[in-house]
Amino acid sequence: MGILMDDNIHAPTVTSGPSTDGGPPRDLAKLTIVELMQEKQRIEDELSALSSVLNSHGVNMNSTLTTFDGYPRDDIDVAQVRSTRVQIIRLRNDHKDVMRFIDSAIQDHFANTRRAQDASTANGIPGSGSDLGGNTTPAGSAAGSAGPPFARVNSVVAASPADQAGLKAGDTIRSFGSVNWLNHERLTKVAQAVQQNEGRPLIVSVSRKSDTDPSRNSELQLELVPRQNWGGRGLLGCHLVPL
């Protein structure tokens, strides 16, 4: 006669300690932005591999690991699934930490760039009033803080999440959540951000040409919530093209 297992067998138990088996965790504060990007890619590669392990069992992070009467399922390796889930939870937390440091490093980079531009302006060096995207902005503007545009909105479907957020065809994207000109990888990271944040707001920084003065741009911060069942295809309802 078998032993009845805990009903919460499918709930991973995350123990304390280093997040990976490769030694003590790295001090993210001491990494350069390039090293942070490499660490981010390493974590994402590991997460992808671990997700494949779950997929091979036909389960996900929320699938029950017990039968209807409380016994462990015999069609999967329960121990491996639980271990994999624990690793995924740890790596997701590591990923959040890395993204926080990346965002901070990017903001510091552009703050330093802005200070250098302001110093050049004060010294009378021409051309220093333009942001990194090549669009002239007023002194003290935060337009360049998100970096130069890396994508353009090609089209927006009416009543879509993108439309409701206020995106318009012709807008250029400076940042899409944590995605920017440094890490968008030909928009593949935008697609990942959309998938990972379904139903949750993403802040999108856009640059939009003025209707009255085409030589000037407006800088906007829009809140976009990717979602299904809005009446059209995809989670956004817009088409982006890389610049």
From TrEMBL:
The alphabetized UniProt keywords are: Chaperone, Coiled coil, Proteasome
Q: Which residues form the PDZ domain?
A: 153-206
Question: Which GO terms are recorded in the biological process aspect for this UniProt protein?
Answer: proteasome regulatory particle assembly
* InterPro entries recorded: Nas2_N, PDZ_6, PDZ_sf, PSMD9
An annotated GO cellular component of this protein is: proteasome complex
Q: Where is the composition biased (Low complexity)?
A: 133-146
Map out region (Disordered) in residue numbers.
1-25, 114-146
Nas2 N-terminal domain ranges (all copies):
34-111
Q: List the coiled-coil residues.
A: 26-53
The record's Pfam families line, in alphabetical order, gives:
Nas2_N (PF18265), PDZ_6 (PF17820)
Q: Which family does it belong to?
A: Belongs to the proteasome subunit p27 family.
Name of the featured protein:
Probable 26S proteasome regulatory subunit p27
User: What organism is listed for this UniProt entry?
Assistant: Aspergillus candidus
